[in-house]
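Lecture notes, structural biology module. Today: joint structure prediction for complexes of two components.
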Amino acid sequence: MILLVDLCYEKESLSMYEFVHPIADILMHSGFSIEIRHYSELARHMPEKYDKIILCGTALKDNYYAKQISSFSWIKCCRTPLLGICAGMQVIGSVFGGRIVPQQAIGLETIEIIRESALLGEPRTIEGYHLHNFGVTVPDDFLLLAGYDEHVEAFKHKNLSIYGIIFHPEVRNRWILDRFANL
Amino acid sequence: MKLGVLFSGGKDSVFATYRAMQKNQVACLITLISQNPDSYMFHTPNIHRTNLQAEAVGIPLLCRPTLGEKEKELEDLAAAIKGARDEYGIQGVVTGAIESVYQAVRTQRICQALDLWCFNPLWQINQVDYLRQLLLEGFQVIITGVFAYPFDDSWLGEELTAECICRLEELWKKYKVSPSGEGGELETMVLDGPIFQKRLEILRSSKSYCNYRGRLFIEEMRLVDK
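The predicted structure, tokenised, for the full assembly:
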């Protein structure tokens, strides 16, 4: 069972169709069971019963999650493989000591994968769909997987299966979700 | 949140309106009437009929003309959205984009520049499941334009039914034609649905068709009580 965490500004918002349902559809199409929870429902409960956890993205104008970082403190104790997408990556970075920084990207851009990983494979360039006004710096315990220090595209925790990608894999890069689900 | 929906009267913008109405207040519908039948951004067949659809769903319509020239039509779209913000106080824009990164990115940038939210509630939806959902939810949809091989003129005016969806699914498997017409292969018009207080009835229409490109021109239609 994979848990999808909805990071949108409110539970059951109109944005959910855009940032959570596409991820759910892709995973279900690949044969995985999923459960969706809004982040506000997890604030005090460590989500332990899942095989994987994905923190989904939000609308360009939706940065409420950044004011609620304490709601995600469970991430630090989490030993379940975790993937943060866009806003989800920013949350992971922030929880581990990185800084959420202004950084806008809208549309398809080339992504340079610089380090081999189980999630993104070997170093090469791919094209990815971006939709964000903020990025995040690489925390101390993390490795840069793609992009560069001033524009982090992907990172991974040095010892744990915790990943972040700033682009949206549901567009043109669905294989990333399959790879994560199969880790 | 008060929202404006980019509204062509086709199934995608009507279904996006439906989803937006379930979550927020739709303050207005926004229609760009393009003079370019091959516009990259805007649906064109029977676009002037959105006034009757807006009346049927009971939401004000803001209509703006555009020459439909690539990229320049975006300035017209931005002006129309700004008009909706000023006139109806909208805080966000809703689109029926499914797969088109071209359309989605341009709308996102306009909304960003105008400090508005942008919602795409059909984004990346499974197209065949979506067509079936339209039927389940009670939408009456007809095909008003075909623009790709192997569509012949018999598709023009055809109503979306379970059997029609099966045929579209077969064409998708055989020819890679997008079942919901996301690549511009098909255009549709919605005549009725759960958000319609009245339904639309076509009284007179004609067809134009040549080389896998055809249009159904709706010459006369009216609103009918449900």
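Point to remember: The domain at 2-181 of chain A is CATH 3.40.50.880 (Rossmann fold).
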